Amino acid sequence: MEQINFNILAFYGFAGLAVISALMILMSKNIIHSVFMLVLVFLSVAAIYIITNAEFVGVTQIMVYIGGILILMMFGVMLTNRIDGGKMLTEHRRIIPAVLLGLGLAFVFYSTLQTKFPLAEFGPQSELDKSVTETIGINFMTHQLVALELTAVLLLMALIGAAFLAGSKFEDKK
Amino acid sequence: MKQSEFIAYITTLIGEFGYLLPEMTLIAGSLFLVVLDLLYKGTAAATVRTLATLVVLAATSLAIDAAPIEGAYLNGVLAQTAVTPTLKYFFVLMTAAVLLYPNSRVQRRTGEYQYLILMVLLGTFFLIQAQNLLLFYVALELVSITSYVLIAFSFQRKGFEAGIKYLLFGAMSSGLMLYGLSLIYGLSGSLDLALIPQMVAQSSDPTWLNLALMLFFVGIFFKLALVPFHIWSPDAYEAGPTAAIALISVLPKVAILVFFYQFTQLLDTTDVELFNWQYALSILAIGSMFVGNLSALRQNNAKRMMAYSSIAHAGTLLIGVIVGTAFGYEAMLFYAVVYGVMNVGVFYFIDWMEKNELENISDLAGLGRQFPAVGVCMTVLLVSLVGLPPTGGFSAKLLVFSSLWDVYLQSSDSYLLWLFALGILNSAISLFYYLKIPYYLFLKTTNSTQRYRVGAVSVVFLACTALLVLAIFFMADLLLEMLF
Amino acid sequence: MIAFLIYLPFLLVFVIFAVYAERKVSAFMQDRIGPMETGKFGILQSFADVLKMMQKEDIIALAADRKLFLMAPLVIFVSVFTGYAVLPLSADIQGSAAETGIYFLLAVISLDVIGILMAGWGSNSKFSLFGAMRSVAQIVSYEIPLGLAILCVIMLMQTLSLQEISLQQVGGLGFIHWNIIQYPFLIVPFVIYFIASLAESNRTPFDLPEAESELIGGFHTEYSGFRWAVIMLSEYGMMLLVSLIAVILFFGSWNTPLPNLGPVRLADWTSGTVGQLSADVWGTFWILSKAMLMIFVQMWVRWTYPRIRVDQMMSLSWKYLTPIGLFMVFVSGFWKLWM
């Protein structure tokens, strides 16, 4: 009983942290602070994954989002920001439609949350006696093999495309 | 799963890998192109690369021929239906046609261009065969991310801006769709399309499934550029390289519609009381047709006009999904093929305009008399886009609307009648802006003394598309037979 | 928990002696004698340094981004020290028996970069920003060959857990059971790993981020006193961490190097009995002493090679280490399948 309580407590703690940091991203005028708040959001989401026994997903979340994407974002912001000289600030425009849309979406989600989520029967655990990581690996190499290979192709394409766009000097005709 | 079952599973997986031959040919060929770009940098490099790409496409179509058997493959992740090979041929032909565009010199300077074009093709190959939500998502991202890069390939400030705009909207919609897909996974416990309906039936409460479907559909609507998820498309179309746009405006849309049709077919098989998605789709289809056609009326820029026109056509194509019968599906694919041919022709002409630095439709004044052959071909293509006889566009619209009429007679839902009536009204609206081009070409005169050149290749290309459109009208049954 | 209680004090003591060792090693390599004044052979030099550092004023530049500036050293230290959570010390002592072990470790180490960026940006100084940029570019680039080298070992061991990797290297023949002897081609991944780990911990010849002659102190130019000490602490912590990983992955973890030779049962004598205190003491002794040896090699390299240029640093990672690493992943796969 004690154990369960602790898990739920931790869950709400991290979920709250994620929501608050996400709001801070929105409110903060300083774009750098927003990016660092995003770190917190990702970290708390990773923590939630780990609490819910999805250890591998949680670590991947840290690896991919914080170790990869966010650092790239910071790099981008820092390179553009200080070069211009001026401070880079975010601003809020069209607040009313945004708020209306947000409230609408919140209403949709809220009304859905009134009913319990009917989680599917995921069937008995695999009899192969494998750990979670091994199961993920086996699934990658069997059932989702095509998707995995296609992802490889996708990443290669993104690499070539990004390298090409970044390397090309665009010509302004006018 | 037991050890023995597992081994059998892997054995079938390895045994059926040959099924992916066309896709593997395409991947190997595209890598070959990238390497070729590094190795050969002669004066005729662009031509050599285009030829090499055509060779890759030819090899791919040979490979398509090698795997004609229908059924599920690779443990049910992919499936081949009767139309799959034909659609693949159609996609390959479209890609080949797009490579022949006159103004793509800028893009053809680099090998990456052809590589990216082939990646779009590869993505659509997987989209039409996917039977698994994860594979569908990866294939969709392959197509989308390639499109983002291709839009920015014009190397102008505008192109980058449009590319970023497209990317931001696209990323947002992908996120929503992914959320929907993950909810579907939680509800059904499976990512395989075949297993989803029976799993979903376990619970009687449709609230969550409705939400999941809604989010999933939003992502799909975005990729189809349906109203109100269309805002990105005119900007992207205007700024992108015309050849790439001609491809992006047809291939991904058709491929996604094929998958979407299969998915909605599944929804009918479940007993769960879902929200009336046919009704919602009808509203979107009507909205797309109206917004697309009415906005196109005001456009003077040819590419923007075609962007809005493609929004309207996506609305019409959606009717096939709403109808949901086998006849509706056939009609939709027929329409898609005809639309593809027309689009390739019209965009070819726009590309030619761009090459001569003509942007607006009003600049075309008097050109029809200068080049009657081109003028006539364009008129045929545009008449077909409106959907008037004697062109393929007419047969296509006839099929789509008659399938809709059939369903209306069976179910007598009034919204289907509205869809029918407003759809036909929209064809009438589209008449005004499509025929603006022939109007300027033939009836307006200009004082400008500037002379343009039309190469023999261009005339032949346009004539071929125009003839094809006419041929489809007179031999519509032949195309239907090829498709099914 | 025990591992934590051992590692944290050990790290603190280690840093003090490592700084002293660094000076002495460099001195002997350059034919000098190094610090001699404080205590016998200058052995108290580092303690004096620590005392000095504690007393210094904690200066925060006026134009600095206060929050980021203050947090940065902590973020750096926390992320480096979190890596220790999954390291084993002996057969019984291990931090977290997480199934994802080394994967988790690699992920949290990448958080280190966030702290460096915070420091570089928060200082609001050109030198700091340049240092941070270089540092991040370097760490991000070298994470790829580093990951590939580790992947080779993981493919052969078929587990991500560091303790399981250690257990697979147990045996009566001592060093014969170590991965690097069992799979001789692992010498190439090890060299890649070693080079990349030097870059990860910003050590010479990859100390571009804090190149004194160009950038004063790099990302920690503006720091003083205790905060600077924390940054230094995490840097030495990183050195120790990468050395420990190298030992676990390639050099038999906490296993003894001595083989049983007939009646002379060296391996048994130097391993203790599993489950008893002797095994823990021997395990801890072996893993830490091997790590110390690795750190000595790091220092050796530092005082032997000159700093490389930025472009050389990039091309080394992307054009040489990464392709070789990919090739070695293939070799590992084939080895696993057919050997």
TrEMBL record, chain A:
GO molecular function annotation: NADH dehydrogenase (ubiquinone) activity; quinone binding
Keyword Amino-acid biosynthesis attached: no
Primary site of residence: membrane
Membrane topology: Multi-pass membrane protein
Keyword field: Cell membrane, Membrane, NAD, Quinone, Transmembrane, Transmembrane helix
Superkingdom of source: Bacteria
Catalytic activities: a quinone + NADH + 5 H(+)(in) = a quinol + NAD(+) + 4 H(+)(out)
KW Nucleotide-binding (keyword) present: no
Pfam families on file: Oxidored_q3
GO (cellular component) term, any one: plasma membrane
Function: NDH-1 shuttles electrons from NADH, via FMN and iron-sulfur (Fe-S) centers, to quinones in the respiratory chain. Couples the redox reaction to proton translocation (for every two electrons transferred, four hydrogen ions are translocated across the cytoplasmic membrane), and thus conserves the redox energy in a proton gradient.
Name under which the protein is recorded: NADH-quinone oxidoreductase subunit J
Organism annotation: Reichenbachiella agariperforans
Lineage, opening ranks: Bacteria, Pseudomonadati, Bacteroidota, Cytophagia, Cytophagales
UniProtKB/TrEMBL annotation, chain B:
Class of this enzyme: translocase
Membrane topology: Multi-pass membrane protein
Bilayer-crossing regions: 20-39, 51-69, 81-101, 113-130, 136-155, 167-188, 208-231, 243-263, 275-294, 306-327, 333-350, 371-395, 415-435, 456-476
Compartments in which it is found: Cell membrane; Endomembrane system; Membrane
NADH:quinone oxidoreductase/Mrp antiporter transmembrane domain boundaries: 130-409
Gene Ontology process terms (BP): ATP synthesis coupled electron transport
Keyword Secreted: no
Keywords: Cell membrane, Membrane, NAD, Quinone, Translocase, Transmembrane, Transmembrane helix, Transport
Subunit structure, as described in the record: NDH-1 is composed of 14 different subunits. Subunits NuoA, H, J, K, L, M, N constitute the membrane sector of the complex.
Family: Belongs to the complex I subunit 2 family.
Entries under HAMAP family matching the protein: NDH1_NuoN_1 (MF_00445)
Designated name of the protein: NADH-quinone oxidoreductase subunit N
Organism: Reichenbachiella agariperforans
Primary gene name: nuoN
Automatic annotation (TrEMBL), chain C:
EC identifiers of the protein: 7.1.1.-
Record-annotated membrane-spanning stretches: 6-22, 68-89, 101-121, 142-160, 180-199, 236-254, 274-297, 318-338
Organism expressing this protein natively: Reichenbachiella agariperforans
Keyword Transmembrane set for record: yes
Domain of life: Bacteria
Main location: membrane
One Gene Ontology term from the biological process aspect of the record: aerobic respiration
Protein name (record): NADH-quinone oxidoreductase subunit H
Pfam families given in the database record: NADHdh
NCBIfam families assigned to the protein according to its UniProt record, in alphabetical order: PRK06076.1-2
Topology term for the membrane: Multi-pass membrane protein
